Amino acid sequence: MEEARITSYRDGPLLVRGPFRLEDQNGNAIETDRATIALCRCGKSRQRPFCDGSHKGSGLVPMKYTAEKAGDYWLCACKHSAKKPLCDGTHKTLA
Predict the structure, then answer these.
(1) pTM, whole model, 2 decimals?
(2) Taking residues 71-95, what's their average pLDDT?
(3) Number of domains within the chain
(4) Residues linked to residue 23 through DSSP beta bridges, in sequence order
(5) Do 69 and 55 belong together in one domain?
(6) Which residues make Cβ contacts (< 8 Å) with residue 87, sequence separation at least 6?
(7) Mean pLDDT of 56-62
(8) Is 45 found in the same domain as 20?
(9) What pLDDT score was predicted for residue 86?
(10) Is 50 found in the same domain as 16?
């Protein structure tokens, strides 16, 4: 079986190619009929989790993260975490 491939574009979205399952925070499937999708990283998209191009001019820059051990990690998507690139739950307090 082919692997999913995720490409991070400088100042842009994450492109996901290949077989994948996209889920919300509750584990529910987010349906898409595409083999390649662009996921928003700037938090400005009106079609989240998908990119709509709103990142242009946002100054978003890529950040490298290497996990110290195997496990589940939650990456920040709201851009307000004090523990970037990991989520610290700050998004729950945003209006």
Answers:
(1) 0.58
(2) 84
(3) 2
(4) 29
(5) no
(6) 74, 75, 76, 77, 78, 81
(7) 70
(8) yes
(9) 85
(10) yes
pLDDT of residue 60: 67
- By CB neighbour count within 10 A (0-12 exposed, 13-18 middle, 19+ buried), where does 40 fall? buried
Residues 46 and 78 in one domain: no
Distance CA 58, CA 11 (A): 8
Task: Evaluate whether 25 touches 3 at the Cβ level (below 8 Å).
Answer: no
SS3 of 75, please? strand
Q: What are phi and psi of 91, to 5 degrees?
A: -55, -25
Q: Domain of residue 7: give its range.
A: 1-62
How far apart are alpha carbons 35 and 56 in whole angstroms? 24
Assigned token pair, 35: 């083999």
Same domain, residue pair 18 and 58: yes
Residues 49 and 71 occupy one common structural domain? no
In whole numbers, what is the pLDDT of the chain averaged over residues?
82
CB atoms within 10 A of CB 31: 6
The string of pLDDT tens digits covering residues 17-42 is 888 888 888 989 998 888 888 888 88
Judge if 56 and 90 occupy the same domain: no
